[in-house]
Write a structure and sequence with these properties.
The longest helix is centred in the middle third of the chain and has 25 residues. This protein is an alpha/beta fold. The chain has 16 helices and 13 strands. Helix 3 packs parallel to helix 5, helix 8 packs antiparallel against helix 9 and helix 15 packs parallel to helix 16. The structure holds beta-D-glucopyranose.
């Protein structure tokens, strides 16, 4: 539509989800268990004892959900494949029923003119592979590439955009350092090994894609600008370590073919830099980088605070979301511009951006007013637009998330959706943010210049 909004005419407007967070029916039709299924069924792991057994029941309601996406005017939809639906043991035997589910979903999307962006791994690992060592096993890059190839062969003709891994840093940090995601280990030494295997798995899958795929493949990372709480040398050093640990650990090897030297300080004796053969595999050219942005992070030196020894300092003057994350749209512009500066003109896609807020209960009304989320989207989309104005090659934006869903260790206690889900009845109700986003899409961003609806001001 309008080019005057500043968003390119062909800009992709989408929403994102992931398999374990929405599908439910985790063991249906021959699927194998995933590590998240097992973790969620381990007492004490998930807030409220929640599991993904039903989630949004999307496995059975996907046709209706695609209609919902069409009603929002989405041009694209990012979702992930459950590895253990397709390969119940993680390798070897293919479960045709699992492939069929995704084939139906992809066809329904394409019929509605919605482009699929498929993430191969959004944290749910086949439990059978977990039993063999999961991300610690040096064979996992090959297992992942073999699984990726099954997906490329099945859907490569219909899926124009692929992502290998979602947020490898979280897989490593939450799963192997802090033990709050599976496999719930707490070992910095293991984390260093896992990071290398994640990177190798990404590279191996991209290599396979070049042999079989026809369109685009990229990696999805979560980025948070790190800012020092003071100009004290110790805080500046902590900031640099935190940045290397979270933001550059995965991007530098993939895009520059080297690892940040500061990782030696972060990981200590556990660290051995990737060798030339690792880097050759890891540094496969990618077609786009997927960026997940939620917040920034102001840090202070603290020897007791994780491998980067950087403690997060709460900014009391700022608005915070229900997950306690500071709302800071200017940092979104900074992240996007910083990527261009450091890594050049690689096409970028915002693969996640959004916020959890405590929405009003919906029981008695047809509307769910979520003014804070409307405002969050407006301010962050304007921040993205500012990056475009400064020359960033931003091709698309995916809101996180379409539906309220299973928010990992927080269970169903945090709602990020554009669409409210009543988990007892599975009724979907559009929130004000969904109505607003529909207008953003319809006007190709022009509506962002208008004053917000009264409730959101
Ligand atoms: C993940 C999503 C998650 C969201 C909000 C991202 O780290 O990719 O799966 O729900 O953040 O926490």
């Amino acid at each position: 539509m309008t080019a005057s909004s500043g968003f390119p005419d062909e800009f992709l407007w989408g929403a994102a989800t992931s398999a374990y967070q929405i599908e439910g029916s985790p063991l249906a039709d021959g699927a194998g268990a995933s590590n998240w299924h097992r973790f969620a069924h381990t007492p004490g792991r998930i807030e409220g004892g929640d599991t993904g057994d039903v989630a949004c029941d999307h496995y059975r309601r996907h046709a209706g959900d695609v209609e919902l996406m069409a009603s929002l005017g989405l041009g694209a939809y990012r979702f992930s494949l459950s590895w253990s639906r397709i390969l119940p043991e993680g390798r070897g035997r293919v479960n045709v029923n699992g492939l069929d589910f995704y084939a139906r979903l992809i066809d329904q999307l394409l019929e509605r003119g919605i482009q699929p962006l498929v993430t191969l791994f959004h944290w749910d690992l086949p439990a059978a592979l977990d039993d063999l060592g999961g991300w610690l096993d040096p064979r996992i890059p090959d297992w992942f590439a073999d699984y990726a190839e099954v997906a490329f062969r099945a859907f490569g003709d219909r899926v124009p955009m692929w992502a290998t891994l979602n947020e490898p840093w979280v897989v490593m940090d939450a799963g192997y350092v802090h033990g709050v995601h599976p496999p719930a280990h707490r070992s910095v030494a293991e984390a260093a090994t896992v990071a290398r295997h994640l990177l190798r798995a990404h590279g191996a899958a991209v290599q396979r894609y070049r042999a079989h795929g026809r369109r685009q493949i990229g990696l999805v990372v979560n980025l948070e600008p790190k800012e020092p709480a003071s100009q004290a040398p110790a805080d500046l050093a902590a900031t640099a370590r935190a940045d290397a640990y979270m933001n550059r650990q995965f991007l530098d090897p993939v895009l520059l073919g080297r690892s940040p030297e500061l990782l030696a300080e972060v990981f200590g004796p556990a660290w051995s830099p990737p060798g030339a053969d690792d880097l050759e595999l890891i540094r496969q050219p990618i077609d786009f980088l997927g960026v997940n942005y939620y917040t920034r992070n102001v840090v202070r030196d603290d020897p007791a605070a994780g491998p980067a020894r950087a403690r997060s300092v709460r900014q009391d003057a700022s608005v915070h979301t229900a997950t306690g994350w500071e709302v800071h749209p200017a940092s979104f512009t900074a992240v996007l511009c910083g990527l261009k500066e450091r890594y050049g003109d690689l096409p970028l896609i915002v693969t996640e951006n959004g916020a959890a807020f405590d929405d009003p209960p919906v029981a008695t009304t047809e509307r769910v007013d979520d003014p804070q989320r409307v405002r969050y989207y407006r301010d962050h989309l304007l921040a993205a637009l500012e990056a475009i104005r400064r020359g960033v090659n931003l091709r698309g934006y995916f809101a996180w998330t379409l539906l309220d869903n299973f928010e990992w260790a927080a269970g169903y206690s945090k709602r990020f959706g554009l669409v409210h889900v009543d988990f007892a009845s599975q009724r979907r109700t559009l929130k004000s943010s969904a109505h607003y986003y529909r207008e953003v899409i319809r006007s190709n961003g022009a509506i962002l210049a208008d004053p917000l609806p009264a409730a959101s001001r």
